[in-house]
Amino acid sequence: MMLAEAATGLGIECVALDPAPDSPASRVARTIVGDYDDETALGELSAAADVVTYEFENVPVASARFLEERVQVFPPPESLEFAQDRVLEKTLFEEVGLAVAPFSPVSSRDELAEALEVIGAPSVLKTRRLGYDGKGQIRLASVDEADNAWRAVGEVPSILESLVPFERELSLLGVRGQTGRAGFYPLVENRHRDGILRVSIAPAPAVTPELQATAERHASAVMERLGHVGVLAIELFQVGEDLLGNEMAPRVHNSGHWTIEGAETSQFENHLRAICGLELGSTSASSYSGMVNLIGSTPPDGAFDHGPRVHLHLYGKASRPGRKMGHVTVVGADPITRDRVLGRVTQTADNLG
Question: Which residues contact 314 (CB under 8 A, 6 or more apart)?
């Protein structure tokens, strides 16, 4: 939806493919209703488009490759493939020099026992594929919890990761154009609850130029390795002055929604610029920003009437526990102003659930 909204200002017409006839994108763009692996629907999409992109990473890689034979697809299917498999993702990070928490692939209960001998506990067992927002993972406080953990993830191929104590989670959003030129937004600090992103602070407080440069170097290496075109987000754990790679998303990202009001060019506009071969816009922050996700239900009218620095975005989704229904962005000329208003907005969001 937000990509299509950003496209309007660039004179770009969008066509969406979604299984739901009432998807958020259908409110702002012509929509083809069909499953993501429906070749008839995919053929209709490729015939209607000059370039195809995606805004979440569970699109089948086979569908992206099917489209790539008929029309330009950015980011490339390889980016999608690596992001969908946590083992491939961690291996890629290591290949480009981005450290990760100790991990081991797990395909059976016996392999889990072997992995625990190496990784130990506390640790976290995650499905290799399809997990997000805290889904598809379980923590192990001791090796005695292996049986329950294996059942909890559905006895499917997984990855065991050491539970590394970290100071905070950061994310870096980069954008790379078709010429290879790239830009990076300031590091963002992310705060979660129940495995779901609740608040993002941008720029992240107390980030040294060296830490920003290190994150950019790693993200650049990942994008170059994949031939990535478009926005790429990498979630990172900060441990002292070191960064550990957690996961990546080859798309516009929730932790970058603040860029609509808080950056010179939003992540959505820059993603479109990149995939359409246009010049990239500035990735500089234009204010101090905070983003709060609205989880589970749509707020009543006027709930976030906290002044002109507060911007409400609703996605038009049906209410459901744990579902991201929208977000609120707070902008300020300084961190003190931002934090004062952000505190009120966060409290309102928490009261709503």
Answer: 294, 298, 325, 326
Q: What is the DSSP string of 220-288?
A: HHHHHHHT--EEEEEEEEEETTEEEEEEEESS--GGGTTHHHHBSS-HHHHHHHHHTTPPPPP--BSSE
Distance of alpha carbon 56 from alpha carbon 204, whole angstroms: 24
- My answer on whether 230 and 287 are in the same domain is yes
154: alpha, beta or left? (left if phi > 0; alpha if psi -120 to 50): left
Establish if 177 belongs to a structural domain.
Answer: yes
Closest CA to 52 of 276, 280, 278: 276
Tokens of 215: 């994150």
Eight-class DSSP state of 64: H
Structure tokens at 151: 């059942």
**Is the residue at 40 inside a domain?**
yes
Burial of 207 (0-12, 13-18, 19+ CB in 10 A): middle
20, 33 Cβ separation under 8 angstroms = yes
Q: pLDDT digit string (tens) for 288-335?
A: 999 999 999 999 999 998 888 999 999 988 898 989 999 999 999 999
Do 222 and 342 have their domain in common?
Answer: yes
The token pair at 345 is: 């907005």
Element (H, E) at 78: helix 77-84
Please choose, from the candidates 68, 71, 65, 97, the residue with its C-alpha nearest in 3D space to the C-alpha of residue 84: 65
Which positions of the chain have pLDDT values less than 70? 131-134, 353
Rg of the chain (C-alpha set): 20
Region of 171 on the Ramachandran plot (φ > 0 left; ψ -120 to 50 alpha; else beta)? beta
- 180 and 315 in a single domain? The answer is yes
